[in-house]
Amino acid sequence: MLLAPVVLAGQLSIGWSNDAFDAGRDAVAGRADKPVAAGAVSRRAVAVTAAIALAASVVGSFAIGEVAGILNAVMMAAGWAYNAGLKSTLASGLTYIVGFGLIPAFAASTLPGHPAARPWTIAAAAAVGLGAHFANVLPDLAGDEAAGVHGLPQRVAARGGPVAARLVALALLLLASVFLVLDSSPSRRWVAIAGLVVAAVLAMIGARAPGRWPFLAAIGIAAIDVALFAFGGVVLV
Question: Looking at the chain, which terminus has fewer C-beta neighbours within 10 angstroms, N or C?
């Protein structure tokens, strides 16, 4: 019963804290779509609300169990640390690995007996997270450079060009699809293999296509990976 409110409160806290931490940068960039930058709500109000949501998520997760509470606290710390400044460092990728990689472990910890999640499931979630981190910045590389955001994907793009960041994003998301095949149950492995084939086709399109196609291909692979988590017979524990 507590799981859904805990997850929702945690995600709200990370989203709101991002708005609070980035209020100055968003104002300079003229982000009218951001309530704080647009003046619709104060930065302090958003920060306080984010802190309350964080407390609710952490306390609620400890009410589920000690292991769930510890894992959720670590995931929340990763998200808040990213927003607080790690997004502009090489450690930006680590926050995504931790924040996404621990999701299966957290889910498993809420089950009776608090079993451990299978390694392939954790590896797949971590690969999806890091791949999503790279994919998310593809449309905004120029804006990030102007804003002084130099996280891991931006640094890869600075050294190898936007194509390098694109290829890393596609490779990580495709790797997650491979992990999900390895972690699928024998009776449903055909679903995971079919998903991997489609993901591979999208990766080839994304690696060669111009414009927004690489970003759209990466989003498509990520969507397939999420679908495989839900319907591909992935064995959690």
Answer: N
Q: Which residues pair with 234 in a beta bridge?
A: 184
How far from 227 is each of 44, 97, 196, CA to CA, in Å? 38, 19, 11
Dihedral sign of CA atoms 10, 15, 19, 22 in order = positive
Can you give the three-state secondary structure of 129-162, one letter per residue? HHHHHHHHHHHHHHHHHHHCCCCHHHHHHHHHCH
Mapped onto helix, strand or coil, the DSSP state of residue 212 is coil
pLDDT in tens, 186-231: 998 999 999 999 999 999 999 988 888 999 999 999 999 999 988 8
Token pair in block for residue 125: 């979630």
b/e code 196-230 from CB counts within 10 Å (16+ = b) = beebeebbeebeeeeeebbbbbbbbbbebbbebbe
Rounded Cα–Cα distance for residues 95 and 126 (Å): 10
CA distance 210 to 98: 32
Residue 234, amino acid: V
Q: Classify the C-alpha dihedral 83-86-87-93 as positive or negative.
A: negative
Structure tokens at 182: 């390895």
Residue type, 155: R
Query: For residue 150, what are the CA distances in angstroms to 115, 163, 170, 215?
Result: 38, 17, 20, 19
Helix axes 162-182, 189-208, angle to 10 degrees: 170
- Residues in the chain, how many? 237
Is residue 75 a contact partner of residue 103, using CB atoms and an 8 Å limit?
Answer: yes
What's the token pair of residue 126? 């971590």
pTM: 0.91
